[in-house]
Amino acid sequence: MLGFVVPIKSRKISKSWDNLSLLFERTAKSMCNHTHPDFRMIVVCQYQPHIKFEHPNLQYLTVDLGLPVPIILLEVIYMMSQKPR
Question: Which of 15, 23, 13 is nearest to 50 (CA)?
């Protein structure tokens, strides 16, 4: 068994959800075009992309992990915590 885990960014932070869905659909079609049937493609997402493509080995795992914090914000928080008071 071969497994692929594909994370998808949240619709809330995507600049174009329609474009992201289109690109994901192309990716899913390509990955599911294997000649060997013993594989799984697990898509980890907050929202399922809007696609028409279906495959028995394509599974969605919907999670609510919150929105990611921009790395620059984490750096600012870290630098502020290092200043002497």
Answer: 23
**Sequence-separated (6 or more) residues with CB below 8 Å from residue 11:** 17, 20, 46, 47
What is the phi-psi region of residue 9: left when phi exceeds 0, alpha when psi lies from -120 to 50, beta otherwise?
beta
- CA separation for the pair 19, 23 (Å, rounded): 6
CA pair distance 14, 1, nearest whole angstrom: 32
pLDDT tens for 21-67 read: 999 999 999 999 988 889 999 999 999 998 999 999 999 999 887 76
Identity of the residue numbered 52: K
